[in-house]
């Protein structure tokens, strides 16, 4: 016998979970959301928001240093950390709780676990157990957790993970970072700008940001080295130890060592499926929870998964997009409505989600890289352009360095992917997202005239390079 019967139960109140709640309640269904920590999830308190708050001063330092006549004062790290604290509401989720209550939806504090068909058992911090039964759907939105690589001595050395870096109280003078992906690059640069004077990245692969076009990683590596961040490529960490005085020593595969006050491990994330009761639906919980394009677990009539847990794209905006699809699908199915609407299927993940890396230079990209497009068998043509030659970019500051690359499907004359690297390119990517997802033919794109003198004139230059 359930303690609570409700239309929809969502496990995890991160951005993905909260958006499902929003959509199903708007559609007139009742909903309970289970959260074991803070309503708002990783993104609001430990990931996107604090990291971007810590990166913003570095962005401005870059801007100011590129314009003659402006003077850069010393960075007051404590003021930056205070603004970060404000941005994460001092780890208080009161605002989110109020929002959930107002929807209205029911927030159940505690650990959620599948315990039967359409059934979630919530165990509160005080041991209280509540059994909730969903009439229509259970949605898993528990996010992801950092991967801990199997390196000798690593766990004993008590390394930092992304949460420690984003909620930092005292910036370490010497920082070692394991990994060369997004978290590693963003947090290395943020902490370096706030006083981590000796920062070293230990990167297994041959480039930073291994999933984007190589030129973007190269531009970033160049900027890192110019600012004094040490990048060690093609190298493995073999052993880690922490001495009594707190110094962490990382022993590398070439016999050298890196000494630091803290070691940040940023080697990817895995879906948060531990103790979620996935065996109830015959899943082993070893990888992401696979879903179809309606976000439902194949073979189940009632179980859905959105956000990081399904492994499609570990990005807040894509988790929220999946949540909109999922919430609307659940509502349509509950009401017996037709599902013949494009908004009821996730196609956005398939095109390749847009992503911005908030480093200096920023990197923004959408769609396929050249390599991915070729591997998929497209008839590819590539155009590239040096963004320093765009008037709008030149006016942003002296020595502007940036590059853009477009991957064209020659058969259909549409864009398959676009990548920008350079200061301020975050805001360029949405135009690219529209062009790529809407498959705008290049000869139509030609008539979308960018304003002068904006950096957006890069679009004109790319099309001219193409031959229009
Ligand atoms: C340092 C860092 C920076 C990032 N920056 C960006 C960025 O700038 N832009 C971007 O798009 N993405 C960014 N990301 C990725 C982004 O944070 C995630 O994609 C996003 O948080 C995923 O949302 P989610 O709702 O799936 O999961 P989460 O945000 O992880 O939320 C899951 C929630 O479920 C709860 N939960 C877990 N298990 C249970 C359970 N059994 N019972 C009850 N509750 C449970 C958790 O406590 C949590 O609140 C960043 C990630 C990191 C690590
Ligand atoms: N601005 C943003 O949108 C943003 C910012 C931060 C994080 N995120 C998301 O969070 C997710 C996690 O980020 P991340 O940087 O942890 O993962 P990632 O997958 O981007 O990078 C992981 C890095 O660790 C390396 N690595 C993996 N195993 C290793 C090992 N055993 N030893 C040494 N190196 C190893 C990889 O080669 C890679 O360089 C990403 O998928 C990203 O989408 C997004």
UniProtKB/TrEMBL annotation:
UniProt keyword Lipoprotein present: no
InterPro entries registered for this protein in UniProt: Class-I_Pyr_Nuc-Dis_Oxidored (IPR050151), FAD/NAD-bd_sf (IPR036188), FAD/NAD-binding_dom (IPR023753), FAD/NAD-linked_Rdtase_dimer_sf (IPR016156), Pyr_nuc-diS_OxRdtase (IPR001100), Pyr_nucl-diS_OxRdtase_dimer (IPR004099)
Top-level lineage group: Bacteria
Domain annotation Pyridine nucleotide-disulphide oxidoreductase dimerisation: ranges: 354-459
Gene Ontology terms for molecular function: dihydrolipoyl dehydrogenase (NADH) activity; flavin adenine dinucleotide binding
UniProt-annotated binding residues for FAD: 52, 112, 142-144, 308
Keyword field: FAD, Flavoprotein, NAD, Nucleotide-binding
Keyword NAD tagged: yes
List of residues binding NAD(+): 179-186, 268
Entry protein name: NAD(P)/FAD-dependent oxidoreductase
Organism whose genome encodes this protein: Actinomadura rudentiformis
């Amino acid at each position: 016998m359930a303690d609570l019967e409700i239309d929809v139960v969502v496990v995890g109140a991160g951005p993905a979970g909260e958006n499902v709640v929003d959509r199903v309640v708007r559609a007139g269904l009742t909903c309970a959301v289970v959260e074991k920590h803070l309503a708002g999830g990783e993104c609001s308190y430990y990931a996107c928001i604090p990291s971007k708050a810590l990166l913003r001063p570095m962005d401005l330092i870059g801007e100011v240093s590129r314009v003659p006549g402006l003077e850069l004062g010393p960075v007051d790290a404590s003021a930056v950390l205070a603004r970060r604290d404000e941005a994460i509401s001092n780890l208080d989720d009161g605002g989110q709780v109020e929002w959930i209550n107002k929807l209205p939806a029911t927030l159940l504090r505690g650990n959620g676990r599948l315990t039967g068909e359409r059934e979630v058992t919530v165990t509160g911090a005080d041991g209280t157990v509540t059994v909730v039964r969903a009439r229509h759907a259970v949605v898993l939105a528990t996010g992801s957790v950092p991967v801990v690589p199997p390196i000798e001595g690593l766990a004993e050395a008590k390394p930092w993970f992304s949460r420690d870096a984003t909620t930092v109280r005292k910036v370490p003078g010497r920082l070692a970072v394991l990994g060369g992906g997004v978290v590693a690059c963003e947090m290395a640069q943020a902490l370096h700008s706030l006083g981590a004077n000796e920062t070293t990245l230990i990167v297994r692969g041959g480039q930073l940001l291994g999933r984007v076009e190589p030129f973007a990683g190269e531009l970033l590596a160049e900027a890192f080295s110019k600012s004094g961040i040490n990048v060690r490529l093609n190298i493995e960490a073999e052993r880690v130890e922490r001495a009594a005085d707190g110094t962490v020593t990382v022993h590398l595969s070439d016999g050298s060592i890196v000494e630091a006050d803290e070691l940040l491990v940023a080697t990817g994330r895995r879906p948060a499926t531990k103790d979620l009761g996935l065996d109830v639906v015959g899943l082993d919980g070893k990888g992401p929870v696979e879903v179809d394009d309606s976000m439902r677990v194949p073979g189940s009539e009632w179980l859905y998964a959105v956000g990081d847990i399904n492994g499609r794209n570990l990005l807040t905006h894509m988790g929220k997009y999946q949540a909109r699809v999922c919430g609307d699908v659940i509502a349509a199915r509950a009401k017996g409505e037709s599902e013949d609407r494009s908004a009821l299927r996730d196609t956005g993940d398939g095109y390749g989600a847009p992503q911005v890396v908030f480093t200096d230079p920023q990197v923004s990209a959408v769609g396929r890289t050249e390599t991915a497009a070729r591997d998929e068998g497209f008839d590819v043509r590539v155009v590239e352009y040096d963004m320093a030659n765009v008037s709008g970019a030149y006016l942003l500051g002296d020595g502007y360095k940036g590059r853009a690359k477009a991957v064209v499907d020659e058969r259909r004359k549409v864009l398959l992917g676009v990548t920008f690297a350079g200061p301020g390119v975050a805001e360029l990517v949405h135009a690219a997202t529209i062009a790529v997802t809407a498959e705008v033919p290049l000869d139509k794109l030609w008539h979308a005239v960018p304003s002068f003198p904006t950096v957006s004139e890069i679009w004109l230059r790319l099309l001219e390079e193409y031959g229009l």
